[in-house]
Specification:
Pfam families: BACK_BPM_SPOP, BTB, MATH_2
Radius of gyration: 31 Å
Largest sheet: 5 strands, antiparallel
Order of helices and strands: EEHEEEEEEEEHEEHEEHHEHHHHHHHHHH
Helix content: 25-40%
Number of strands: 15
CATH superfamily of one domain: Apoptosis, Tumor Necrosis Factor Receptor Associated Protein 2, Chain A
Distance between the termini: 104 Å
Number of helices: 15
Family: Belongs to the Tdpoz family.
CATH topology of one domain: Apoptosis, Tumor Necrosis Factor Receptor Associated Protein 2, Chain A
InterPro entries: BACK_BPM_SPOP, BPM1-6, BTB/POZ_dom, MATH/TRAF_dom, SKP1/BTB/POZ_sf, TRAF-like
Shape: flat
Pathway: Protein modification; protein ubiquitination
CATH architecture of one domain: Sandwich
CATH class of one domain: Mainly Beta
Strand content: 15-25%
Organism: Panicum miliaceum (Proso millet)
């Protein structure tokens, strides 16, 4: 007797989760200026196709919580959204937490709200008493008048049933491996098979293939294929590469063939100084041969090696080779007075001040935070104009910030 086929179904309840961190960077002013019942809102953020915001009450939302910091999650007035419909209710819960200085949750000050239906118009917010102010002010979580609050939004979709009768998908009969062109080209470079161009770099010889180099670099294309088209005998002569370390040229060739830096690149896994030096040399080579991706890779690596001892050198390199992102990273690093003072005391910054005064102008300009003229602006402008014969003013207005004061005082000391 034939048995009836088995059937199966499943009840599925999917959810969507989003995360937002509110940085309170001026705790004391918010406590003094916002009385009980008054809040300041975070920037809107999106979760599940809806717009949300956090409401921060430094003195509580009512008299019963006047001694505590209270936070709310609010469903904002929906923007133009068709999926889900803008006016449709949404069921969600929120988890609020105080974060420590390592941005980790503080379990004793973490709480999850119940599942709530948010709708517009209707109920659009839900809150949580995070911590009493006296406890926060005594804790290590408040540092330099700053602390952080996280909010996880968990949106629950409607329950649905799904058919589970379909047979499991059979494994494919044909498995396609990932691309391995880079490996084959790397082997071609290593074997030097049918290589048709020779490079001499500081006494070392390298063999490569004109067509590959020309396809990867416009500079190599002009240098190598130009002579070949003209039919000159120079095609057989070795190409001498000046002002480059053989290790850098070897890494450059490896990148041209494989689009990646070699695993045994000098400086990899070694001391920070060696890795930073190799990244600097490779950046110069990448700019020389118009390899934009390699140049950005080196910029990214150097951003991780900026410190008080190297920032002047890296800043000069960024200026020379038009590395905007790397220059911004240097300016950001020296944006605080203490860091700037340490950096200005180095020999590298003194050399930078003499060799590239325009960078100091830009540094001063980047420290402008308020639109007002000040004594330090006038002093710095006159000083730099006289010392470096710069005609244009440093910037139209500069605030009396400690960063600017420290910089101008150091410049005056150098003079």
């Amino acid at each position: 007797m034939a048995s009836e086929p088995r059937s199966a179904s499943a009840i599925v309840g999917a959810s969507v989760t989003g995360h937002h961190v509110l940085h309170v960077e001026s705790y004391s002013p918010t406590k003094e200026e916002l009385p009980t019942g008054k809040f300041i809102s975070s920037c809107p953020f999106r979760v599940g196709g809806r717009s949300w915001s956090m409401l921060y009450y430094p003195n509580g939302h009512d008299s019963g919580h006047a001694d505590s910091i209270v936070v709310f999650l609010q469903l904002d007035a929906s923007d133009a959204s068709d999926d889900p419909p803008a006016a449709a209710p949404v069921r969600a819960r929120a988890r609020f937490s105080l974060l420590d200085q390592d941005s980790k949750l503080v379990p004793s000050h973490t709480g999850t709200t119940g599942l709530t239906e948010f709708s517009l118009p209707g109920r659009s917010l839900i809150g949580f008493a995070l911590i009493r102010r006296d406890l926060l002010e005594k804790s290590q979580h408040l540092r330099d008048d700053c602390f952080k609050i996280s909010c996880d939004v968990i949106i629950h979709r409607e329950l649905r049933t799904e058919d589970r009768n379909s047979s499991p998908r059979a494994p494919p009969l044909v498995a396609v491996p990932p691309p391995d062109l880079n490996r084959h080209l790397g082997d071609l470079l290593a074997a030097e098979h049918d290589a048709d161009v020779t490079f001499q770099v500081a006494g070392e010889t390298f063999r490569a293939h004109r067509c590959i180099l020309a396809a990867r670099s416009s500079v190599f294309k002009a240098q190598l294929l130009g002579a070949m088209r003209e039919g000159t005998s120079s095609r057989e002569a070795p190409v001498r590469v000046a002002d480059m370390d053989p290790r850098v040229f070897r890494a450059l060739l490896a990148f041209l063939y494989t689009d990646a830096l070699p695993d045994d690149l000098p400086g990899q896994g070694e001391e920070e100084e060696a890795a930073a030096a190799m990244a600097q040399h490779l950046l110069v080579a990448a700019d020389r041969y118009d390899l934009k991706r390699l140049k950005l890779i080196c910029e990214e690596k150097l951003c991780k090696h900026i410190d008080t001892g190297s920032v002047a050198t890296i800043l000069a390199l960024a200026e020379q080779h038009n590395c905007c992102g790397l220059k911004k990273a240097c300016f950001r690093f020296i944006s605080s007075p203490s860091t700037l003072n340490d950096a200005l005391a180095t020999d590298g910054f003194q050399h930078l001040a003499r060799s590239c005064p325009s960078l100091l102008q830009e540094l001063l300009s980047n420290t402008c935070t308020l639109k007002q003229t000040s004594y330090w602006y006038r002093v710095s402008t006159v000083f730099i104009n006289q010392l470096y014969h710069v005609k244009e003013p440093v910037c139209s207005a500069i605030a009396e910030t400690p960063v600017v004061v420290a910089l101008v005082e150091r410049l005056l000391w150098w003079s």
